[in-house]
Amino acid sequence: MTNTVAIAARTGRPATSSVMGRLPEFLTIWVPLLLSAAHLISFSLWTIWISFTPSTLVPVSGWVGLRNYTSVLATRNWNIAFDNLLLFGSAFVLLSLATGLILAILIDQRIRGENVLRSIFLYPLAVSYVVTGTVWSWLLNPGLGIQKLVQDLGWTSFRFDWLVDRDMAIWTIVIAAIWQSSGFAMALFLAGLRSVDADLVKAAQIDGAGPVRMYRRVILPTLWPITITVIVIQLQFAISTFDLVRALTNGGPGIATQLPALVVYDLMFQRGLLGRGAAAAVLMLLILLAVLLPYAAWRHLQRRRANHA
Amino acid sequence: MPITTTRRRLLAGAAATLALPAFARAQSGVKPRLTAISQWSAGSDGAAITALGKKFEERGGIWQHSPVPGFTTEMMNKLRAQIIAGDPPACSQLKGPEIAAWSKIAPTVNLDSVVAAAGYEKVVAPDLAKLHKPGGKWIALPLQIYSTNMLFLSKRAMDKAKADKVPVTWADFNDLAEKMKSGGVTYPIANGGTRPDDGQKFEASLAGISPTAYRAAIMNLDKKALAGPEVKAAFAQVRKIADWMDPNVGAQPFATNAKRFIDGDMGMMIQGGWAQGVLRNAGFKLEDFIITPGPSDNSKPVFLLNADAFIFWERKEPDLQAGQALMAQLVMDPAIQTMYSQITGSIPVRTDVDLSGEGWSDGQRRTAAALKDAVANNQAVLSLAHNMAQENGLTAAMIDVLTEYVKNKTIKPEQAVTRLAEAVEGAR
Questions:
Q1: How far is A203 from chain B (nearest CA, A)?
Q2: Which tens digits make up the pLDDT trace of B221-256?
């Protein structure tokens, strides 16, 4: 027995050391990856299964086909939530992109106090969405916040009552979400602006390009991979928005600012309808996939093109 | 001395319970122990349940209460997890039709013998009793009662309106609101913007217009009643109320407006009895406001019931079974109910508790009297807005319609009637 061990040790030394050498890599990359993948996939599969069962208060087995889906799709709540998601998602992503880009370009002008300004614009990201929602719910309340302040200053006919206006309330969520996350877009864009090849800029300057033309024709075109990344990250945030709305409007006035995540929570935990809640969650997953799959395909295409070049 | 007699009866009941085989075996050797979960952790609710725990310990029991602070739904998530794990608490907070719904997912304790021995059924409002005995057996016990349709009048707003008569019917109420408006009260109705707030406006209107229609339409979901003229009239009344409310209220609770109500900038609140505690905790005096039963068109008080309760889950351990028996006796005890309601500001479940003594407020006395009258006239009904009339799923679907109606003034009452009926159909 000692013999075999000795032989194994002798012959196996190089192999063992290479396995040992790769062990940290193994532990830090594969174990967490497999665990979270298993976690994600098993719970997603479980949710999909529940969405086809007649579960109410607790999960039960059984098969009801698409009944949960048809009844969720027939509710006013879901339809309002879906329309809101389209509006909120596109407005929020476009406007936060624009705000972030403008902030990044302004900060990029080698100004004094850049670090301070950058921290200020990034700071909202460190605040929890519940806090953001609560603070804005007071600021936007017409009887207490901005409207009252301006009216007290003397402009008595000033109106800014979006929070309690059914048609405009969804825009208050857009405002608060932009306040929260345009700093994030700014940080990414700034990194992109700083990595633009200095020679390229110099060449453009020599050719006599003014600042506007330089940004439009030289610098911004190099930023578009970052733009796509920002769009995807912001979109998946928009689709899963929950805490911000819950604190800011709680889906109101009435049910005017419902979003899919609110509907899922409401069905599962407040109405005690696990099956329908799971169906709504699966619908959310499908919306998310509709965004992420094209992105993955695009990334794949890019990589192939890069390899060919 | 009604309390003494009931107490004697209760003692007899306790003795009878001891004679019952299951509990007798359980109580003979072991020290009673109770595992309980509720959402009551802070404020007067937390103080009340702590006091109840002390009484439990005084009787030789071991009290193991795990509060789950936050919304009721979070307490329910814990309960759900424990039930799925096969380890339910011996007793947990649960109310209304949820008692029947949850009793289907795990076995409960049959409390019939303890309840019968205490002669409890005679002193509980019939509709309330029904909720706690789904399938004909008592499995849960109500603990305290609130009315969700009390009318709070601001003294200063009454002065501005030069009014001294408390409104009895909806016509009186509407008159008073108009008088307040012309007397300089900015918003005759003080309100919050939450879902139950909006629901309460509707249930108070419908029950006040016709308790019979309320029972048929909201509690029994009778199709004809749901489309009936009373429901439409109730929506019309809600529109009037909504027009008198401050449109700037977002999703805030009603308590945000407490000061403007007391100052007479707002005139009336349709709120639950708990608002009395909120106003007093905010430092306002009882002389600043009047509490009276909500408007009722037949002039007899209508009582919209909201009751907290404990449900008892089946456990095999003898000490937990003994604990459940002891807890049941305590919850039915008039002295314990008195102690509990005096802390929280509610009224006792028992209709035979005397509230004339010290420790009760006028508001509580008036509420208790209203309940007695309402029960006698068959006008005590179950609150929709506070999850007493229907299971949570149906309630939420109906409140969706009500809250949208309150906030969207372009919806006509007849449209709201159709939407309410559709919501009921869709959620069933």
A1: 56
A2: 999 999 999 999 999 999 999 999 998 877 778 888
**B80 to chain A: which residues are within 8 Å by CB?**
57-58
- Residue B201's nearest CA partner among B353, B69, B385, B14 is B385
Give me the residue from A75, A253, A269 closest to B407, CB to CB.
A253
Q: Which residues of A touch B250 (CB under 8 A)?
A: 137, 140-141, 163-164, 249, 252-253
Cα Rg, chain A, nearest whole Å: 26
The CATH number of domain A76-308 is 1.20.120.530: no
What the block records as the tokens of A69 is: 């889906």
Which tokens go with B22?
Answer: 């299951």
Measure in Å the smallest separation between the Cα of A183 and chain B Cα atoms: 28
Residue B403: list chain A partners with CB under 8 A.
252, 254-255
B228 close to B213: Cβ distance less than 8 angstroms: yes
b/e code B311-325 from CB counts within 10 Å (16+ = b):
bbbebeebbbbbbbb
Interface of A with B in 40-99 (CB under 8 A): 56-59, 71, 74-77
Decide if B4 touches A, using CB distance below 8 A. no
Question: ipTM for the complex?
Answer: 0.74
CA B161 to chain centre: 32
Give me the pLDDT at residue B19, please. Answer: 44
What is the fold, at CATH topology level, of the domain defined by B2-145+307-364?
A: D-Maltodextrin-Binding Protein; domain 2 (3.40.190)
A178-225 pLDDT, tens per residue? 999 899 999 999 999 888 888 888 888 888 888 888 888 888 888 888
Q: Which of A56, A57, A141 is most worth mutating to test chain B (most B CB atoms within 10 A of its CB)?
A: A57
CATH superfamily of B150-304+375-427: Periplasmic binding protein-like II (3.40.190.10)
